[in-house]
Each structure stands twice: as structure tokens, then as C-alpha cells.
Amino acid sequence: MRVGEAQKNRLSRSLKLALAESEGYVECFVSGKDGKLDFKKQALYSSKGGCSECGYSWPELDSRYFAINSLGRCPDCDGLGVEQEVDEDDPVENFTQEICKSCLGTGLASKLSAITLGGRTLVDLNRVPLRDLCAFFVSLQKEAFAQNPAFKRVLGEALQIAERIDKTGLGYLHLARRVRSLSGGETGRLKLAGILSETLRGVLYILDEPSQGLHPSEINELLLTLTRLKELGNTVIVVDHDDFLIRNADYVIDLGPGGGAKGGELLASFVPSEAHRFKDVSATAAALVGGHNVSVGASTSAKASADKTSFIVVEDAKIHNLNIPTVRFQKEAFNVVCGVSGSGKTSLVLYTLYPQLLAAASQQKGGGARRFEIPKIELIDRKPLAKSSVSMPITYLDAFTAVRQLFAQLPEAQIRGLNLRSLSLHVEGGRCEHCGGRGEILMSMKFLPDARVRCEYCQGKRYKQDVLDVTYKGYSIADILNLTIEEACEVFKFHKPILKKLEPANQLGLGYLKLGQPTLSLSGGENQRLKLAPYMSGTQVENNLLILDEPTRGLHALDIQALLKVLRNLVERKLTIVCIEHSADIIRQADWIVELGPGAADKGGRLIFEGDFKSLKKSKASKIQAWV
What we know:
Blueprint: H1 5-21, E1 25-31, E2 37-46, E3 82-86, E4 95-99, E5 116-117, E6 120-121, H2 122-127, H3 130-140, H4 149-170, H5 184-193, E7 204-208, H6 216-231, E8 235-239, H7 243-247, E9 252-256, E10 265-270, H8 283-290, H9 300-304, E11 311-317, E12 324-330, E13 334-338, H10 345-361, E14 377-380, H11 393-396, H12 400-408, H13 411-415, E15 440-445, E16 448-454, H14 465-468, E17 471-472, E18 475-476, H15 477-481, H16 485-491, H17 496-510, H18 524-536, E19 545-549, H19 557-572, E20 576-580, H20 584-588, E21 592-597, E22 606-611, H21 613-616
Parallel strand pairs: 7-8, 13-20, 13-21, 14-19, 19-20
Antiparallel strand pairs: 1-2, 3-4, 5-6, 9-10, 11-12, 15-16, 17-18, 21-22
Helix pairs in contact: 3-4, 4-5, 16-17, 17-18
């Protein structure tokens, strides 16, 4: 349509009038050379950015309309990406989750699919791997609309963030992936990607065990990242136990000599090349000088097992990214499952082997795990232990009942009429009722984290005074709860029922924990080792199976050695152990190694090696071989 200067003003006024009369909609018809309107050829326009047919108009869009935690959330799943179906007979235990069909698991409202960028919808972009998203952003830079200064700046920032995550090896993730579904290594690298901005200078970075959950090859990438931060003019402080990181540090500060009350001293500070000068005062320096010295020897039972009947066989493992026709785990041996982050270790062990063996043990149809007589199957993970507000190491180790029985039998307790119930922290009687036996009061701070204040009535001792007046070897029951596990082993060294419960935790390197400290205060590694302790004191472990999920996280070389001794002892008692682990020290001591890979996500999930350590050293397919 050609409009001359004379007609432009008149046309403009006509359009404005039409829009005003029709509340934002205008219908235009084509006229022929004879001036007659062709009512079959019309065009509909709107000043509201909406549909002239149904009347729907988009509001003035901003970032809130594209966020799953704001106005862009899917109404069917409330932005969760999954829909939950609850069993009405047992709503607490039985529910299933399925991907929301409306948003395809992205959590975004389906109506957003009407808005495209470069021919792709937001739902599309949330479902593609980050490495492909980087390529898409690069292609957008060539578009004419991308030359807008504001768009150009936003696109550049988005590309920079996506590339940072891709550089940490997480290019296979997509934006719709929920953080809670990430492995420990993936979570660590994602956090690391958040600080890889090359624009910051003069920043002090403090990283708490960044090597947790990382494959040795990924730790090398971590070191390159930390070095890059340093070279940019920043200071980096790392709290870690990894041998490779310590050897490549500029300066090492070693604290000790033990844990808890036995630690807190500066043992040595040195550059790694001078570690030999401090090997007599620092276990860390001694480890650097002595090299790989974590060794407890192979099990005799594992050496004797070579025939096929000595294996648990899992067939057709297909969950998540797995594509494994057959994989074996050796019976009565120490099995280690390794591989890069995201290669499928958790999917194989926790989501395939564990549920199938549980099903087989309960004589249900279990799928791919061949039947195998296993009286008991235990999973020891890193989840918190706490079940109540008064949960403590002494209660989890099942030693508190024996301690209460001992105090209740004392003459002074019987004179005062105290019994086992009087010494309980769960029921009324001898406990301090003001704090409910917790020794502290929880104060709500509204918009700040809750504060914990020592109880002014019992002064943190948890019990009433008449209970505290009863003593054993000069210790009240409150004093006993304030002892470390190691100290308690000495106090009760002639009381076998109590010592038998506490000694395994001491052997696992947890002697520094106080008997009465809240289990909520324990780290993931402490949780896992404390869960292992009761299993050690059990009399019957033969033919049982134990699954561990990265038990060496946060452990010093000496702690790893203590853990290995315990695990080896259990294997000698004919226990089968399956352990997910990255630690080179653990892998070297394994009787049977299963390695998944070669990469992560769609590039992983395959069995690239299974066998003993001697065979691993000769393997050309193995990715871990070069690091152990």
C-alpha cells in the first residue's frame, strides 16, 4: 500500500478513531482500482498485542512472566515440573511423581509457547543441553534484532553464564533440571561456575571442600579454575583434604593434631616443596612426602572368589542414562563403583541394584538382579540422622539406654526413687521441663534464623537437680553427655555393654564427637560413619550386603585409613560391600572395580571397565586408571 504525504495524516486520524471506537482493534479492507472494497480481503490489527478473535491480550511483559517461581509458573504443577499422585490409603508414604504434560517438566506456563526467540520457545530452550544453548546464543548474535544495544548486552551476559557452566563440564545439563537431582560433584561444579567471573579483581574466595564428589580428572579442572582466579589478582583459601590440591597449593596450613577438642592447634605452615621439614609434626606433610601410603591389604576371601557364582549380576540396567546389558558385583568383597560426575553411578547402585535386591529379598519380582540369598541389605547414605529434637550420637549408637540403666541401679538413685523413666529425655520426670530436655531454648527471630539460647533453669544440663546429684565415678548423667566418645570409652572401659556400642564409632575416627551433641550438627561424612558404627558391633554380617555413598567425603588420609580398616574387617567377616567413590586411595584397595563412563549424561551410562585393580592398571578404556 502506497500512501502519499497528503493522505498520511488523514489515514493516521482514521486509524486512531477506529482504535478508540473499538477499544484497540481495527479491521482494514482492500479496495480495487475502481474504489470498491473487497470484503473477502481484510487484515485485523490490535494495539494491545493480543488476539482480535478471542480478545486475549498479553500484559506488558517483564521477566516475572518467564519465571517458574513467579507469574510464568505452570498452573497445573505450580512450577514444580512434576505432578504428584497420592495414594488415599497411605498419603504419607505412597505417592508417585510424573512429568507434567502441560509444561513438559520445565515448570513454565504452556501459554509462553506462543512467544518465540529466534524461532524457539522458552519451553524449548529450557529442555536443550547448555552446550547447545551456547551455540543458539551465538547464532542469535547474527540476527538483525540482536543489534539492539539492550538486547546485545543481555544476550552477552546469558552467553557468558552458559559458557562458564559448560567450561566446568556441565554442558549436558539443561535449564529445567532441578538442583536437588544433581549429584554431589555436579552441585560443587555448579557452585564453582558461579564464581568464575573474569571481571572481578581483589576478591577473597573461601571454598569449603570444593573437591567433594569430583572425579580426579575433574579435580584437575578445579585446580585450573582456582589458578585462573589467583592469576586475575584474587586470593583463594581452600579447606580441603585432597592430595592433588594440597600438592599444587602455594601455601599449606595444617591444623590438628586430632579432631574436636584434640584439634585446633597450628601444626605446620609451609609450601608443599618443603613438606619434608615438617613430616614429624604434621600428618599432612608426612603424607605429601610419603606419597600414597593408605593401605590395609586385600581380603583373603576376595582373593579366593573367582568363579561366576561369586557374583551378583545386574542385567539390562536402563534407568536414566544407563545402557548396561550386564554388570557384576563380587560377593563377600569390597566393590567400588567409580566414574566421572553424572556418569550414572547413583543410577546404577541406588536406583537399580539396591531396589532390585530389596525386591528379590522380599520375594517380589525384582527385575534384573539375579536371585541371591542376602539376609539383610543396608544403605548407608549421607542423609541427616536426627529423628527428634533430643537425638544425639549416644542415642543413635543405642548406648543411652545402657547408661540410664547403670545410673538407675546406683544406690543414690534408688534412695531418691529414680528409675529408667526418670533419666529419659523424651518423657516428663527427671528432665528439665522448661527446655524439654534439650538444654537450650529455640527463639524465633522472625525474618532471621532461629537463635538457640542456653536454658536458664538447667544451665544446659537437661535434667533436674535431684537427677544431677546422682554420680558414677564422679560424673553426673549430664557430665556423661558432655564427654567425647573417646573419653566415654575410657570411663566405661570395664562396662562391656556400653563399651561395645561406643568403640566402633571411636575406631571410625569419630572419637572427638560429644555423646550429647545434637545429631543435626553433624556433617554428611560424620552422619555416614556414625550410621556404619552400629553395623560394626553386630554379631551377624555374613552374606549381608552394605551400600555406601561416597563415605570418604571430607576425610583426611588418616581418617580414610581408619575407615578402610573397618571395611576390610567387615569383608573378612563375609560381608559384601558396594561403595560409590572417587577417592584414589579407596579404589586402590578395592577387590572389584566397576567404572562407568566415558562421559556424563548422554555421553555416559556405559560400563567401560569391571575387574580387579591389577586388571585396571592394564585397561586402555578406563578413565580413572591414569589417576590411581
